[in-house]
Structures are given as structure tokens and as C-alpha cells.
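Quick review question:
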């Protein structure tokens, strides 16, 4: 029970972070929200490092989760707002690539150092983020929305280059904001207006499927999966991390060429295959059939799973979320979507151990069924947004 609480309490903190992330990002700006997140995350890692009892460990894990809840919403939104149309997908995928590089680094380092040292090392990227934010501009769209015209133009020019022609992009953003200013103040119920509900369904649906396909069960407990299947856990986690980096890098290169929708479809189908392979490995083990095949099937299933997750379902839902919400509802809409993401993460990370005690192969057959539903949802509901201006995407969803 303590193992499950420590594994899942991060996601409870992240849910609270998600609820407040939109308002924080609107009030402090995108940079201010990221800076606040880095401070809270540092406090969380230090609490874990210094902990002498379980409650302090839980507190540190909760604070880390709260900061992640903020930044997991703010970063995709910030990247979506500052990126040129033709690079928006690749740059958003680079965010996911950075996440898996960090995750892979922790897997590799964690195989050789104790957990206190690992927690102390977690403070380093928080400090780098805090300092790095002094050298980048604020989101031009946020500056324009808050009436800071000179800063808006300066930020846009810094992002596009000293000699770039920003007149068309500047006028497009300003015209769009003029329309938004005529709209009434947004409340939670406005998310379900006719003009917004499609964006909500698409974003919330993708985030729900991103988690309920079982990703955090595999990420948080991959070592236990390898042990249960009889595979070397240290070798398995290193392979897991290295593959994740390589495939996510490939996805970043493809997403603005192949498009969001095809990669999401391919990803969901591959996740279905990966879950089935893991499920069959545990099924064979439970019935003492082909014992030499079991570990190979398990590692193949996990690697197939993580490869296909990294190529689409990892970055895709965050990118789509940053693209489909109009600027005036991004705070509330993004908060709701991020809350859904972390709620799903909590459900999976908390229930995974108990599901494995119920039936190891049944757990992954269940996740495989969710992958099938995700494939159908993407085919029916998710539009292609590749190469389109944010304002054009919003207009098409309302048409």
C-alpha cells in the first residue's frame, strides 16, 4: 500500500497543479508559471532527499507532482504560442523528446546510484530551468492579450529574427485578440458552449486515452514487470530508456511531415500490439507454457509499447490540446485537460499493482481493449492540424 501511495501521490499533486495551472499561466505569464514550477519542484526533491520518515517522502513527492502539473500544461501551450506554423509540431515534439531524455537519464543513473542521490540530482534541471527563463522572451500572444503592445512586438521580433517580416503575423494576432475582447468573461460552463465543446471533447478524450492505455503502469513499474517475467530488470530499463529517446526523436521529425492524425492512429495501433505481447507473455507464464519464450515476449512487448507510445500518443495529445483551444479559453480548457491527464495517471499508477495481483495477463488485455477504443476515437474525432494557423484551426472547429 505504501509503495502504491508513494508511486501515485505525485499524480494527486499533479491534478491540483493542473486545476490551478491555467489561472497561474494567465496571471503570472507563461514564464512566471514555469519559474514558480521550478521552485516548487526543487523543494519537493529536497524534501525527498532529506526525508527521515514516510510522510516527508509523501510531501516531497506531492510537491514534485504539483509542479509537474503546472509545467505539463504550460510548456506545450507556450511552445504552441511562440512557434511558426511550419515548425509547431516539431518543436512541440521536442518537448516530449526532452521529457524522455530526462526519464531515460533517470533510468540509467538510477541503476547505479542510491535514491537519495537520485533525488538530489533532480534539483539540477529545476535550477537550469529557473535560470534559463531569464534568456527567453514571454509568449507574444500572452503579452498582446494583456495590453503590453511594445513588449508584444519586441518578443515576436526576437522569436522570428531581427530582419524577419512580422507584419502579417502581428496583425493576425491583434485582429484575433480584438474579436476575443468582445466576448464575455469565460467561466467553466463556457467550455461546453457550441463554439468550444468540440475542442474539449477532442482534448479530454485524447488525454484520457493517453493514460488509460496503461503508460504509467509500465513506466512506474517497468522494473517489476521485467522481474515478474524473468528478464534482467537493469538491462530492461536501460533498453527501455534508450529506445524511448530514439523513437521520440524520430516522431519529432515526422510530425510536421506525416501529420498529427496518422501518427496518432499508428501509435494507438502499436500500443494495442505491445499490450497483447505483454499479456500473452504473462498468460504463458501463468499456465507454465513455453517458459523460455516468456521473458523475450515481455521485453519485446514493453519495447514495442514504448516505441509506439513515443512516436504519437506521448506528444500528440499535448500538441493537439495546445492547437485546438482558442486563446481566451486556454487557461480553463488547458487546466481541465491537464487535470484529466493526471487523474488518468493516478488511476493507472495506483491500481496497477492491484490489477497485477488480480491477473497479470488480464491487466494487459484490459489495456489492449482501451487501445482499440483509442484507435476508433482518433479516427472518428481528431482533425488534422498540420501547417495551419491556430486561428484557422479554431475557426474550422466552429464551422
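Suggested answer, residue by residue:
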Amino acid at each position: 500500500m505504501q509503495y502504491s501511495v508513494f508511486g501515485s501521490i505525485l499524480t494527486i499533486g499533479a491534478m491540483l497543479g493542473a486545476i490551478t495551472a491555467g489561472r497561474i499561466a494567465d496571471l503570472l505569464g507563461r514564464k512566471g508559471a514555469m519559474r514558480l514550477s521550478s521552485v516548487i519542484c526543487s523543494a519537493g526533491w529536497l524534501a525527498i532527499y532529506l526525508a527521515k520518515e514516510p510522510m516527508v517522502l509523501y510531501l516531497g513527492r506531492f510537491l514534485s507532482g504539483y509542479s509537474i502539473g503546472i509545467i505539463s500544461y504550460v510548456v506545450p501551450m507556450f511552445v504552441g504560442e511562440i512557434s511558426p506554423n511550419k515548425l509547431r509540431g516539431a518543436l512541440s515534439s521536442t518537448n516530449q523528446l526532452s521529457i524522455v531524455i530526462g526519464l531515460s537519464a533517470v533510468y540509467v543513473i538510477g541503476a547505479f546510484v542510491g535514491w537519495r542521490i537520485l533525488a538530489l540530482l533532480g534539483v539540477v534541471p529545476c535550477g537550469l530551468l529557473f535560470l534559463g527563463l531569464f534568456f527567453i522572451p514571454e509568449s507574444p500572444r500572452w503579452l498582446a492579450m494583456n495590453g503590453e503592445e511594445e513588449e508584444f512586438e519586441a518578443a515576436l521580433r526576437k522569436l522570428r529574427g531581427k530582419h524577419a517580416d512580422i507584419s502579417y503575423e502581428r496583425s493576425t494576432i491583434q485582429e484575433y485578440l480584438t474579436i476575443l475582447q468582445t466576448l464575455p468573461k469565460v467561466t467553466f460552463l463556457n467550455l461546453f458552449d457550441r463554439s468550444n465543446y468540440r475542442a474539449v471533447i477532442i482534448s479530454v478524450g485524447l488525454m484520457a486515452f493517453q493514460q488509460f492505455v496503461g503508460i504509467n503502469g509500465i513506466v512506474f513499474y517497468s522494473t517489476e514487470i521485467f522481474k515478474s517475467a524473468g528478464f534482467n530488470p537493469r538491462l530492461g530499463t536501460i533498453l527501455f530508456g534508450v529506445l524511448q529517446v530514439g523513437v521520440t526523436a524520430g516522431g519529432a521529425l515526422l510530425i510536421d511531415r506525416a501529420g498529427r492524425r496518422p501518427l496518432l492512429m499508428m501509435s494507438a495501433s502499436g500500443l494495442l500490439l505491445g499490450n497483447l505481447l505483454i499479456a500473452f507473455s504473462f498468460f504463458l507464464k501463468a499456465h507454465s507454457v513455453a517458459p523460455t519464450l516468456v521473458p523475450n515476449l515481455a521485453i519485446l512487448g514493453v519495447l514495442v509499447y514504448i516505441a509506439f507510445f513515443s512516436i504519437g500518443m506521448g506528444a500528440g495529445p499535448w500538441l493537439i490540446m495546445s492547437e485546438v483551444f482558442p486563446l481566451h479559453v486556454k487557461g480553463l480548457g488547458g487546466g481541465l485537460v491537464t487535470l484529466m491527464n493526471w487523474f488518468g495517471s493516478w488511476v493507472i499508477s495506483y491500481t496497477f499493482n492491484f490489477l497485477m495481483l488480480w491477473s497479470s495477463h488480464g491487466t494487459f488485455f484490459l489495456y489492449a481493449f482501451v487501445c482499440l477504443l483509442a484507435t476508433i476515437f482518433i479516427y472518428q474525432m481528431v482533425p488534422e492540424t498540420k501547417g495551419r494557423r491556430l486561428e484557422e484551426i479554431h475557426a474550422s472547429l466552429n464551422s
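Why it works: The CA atoms of residues 198 and 375 lie 18 Å apart. The chain has a mean pLDDT of 85.
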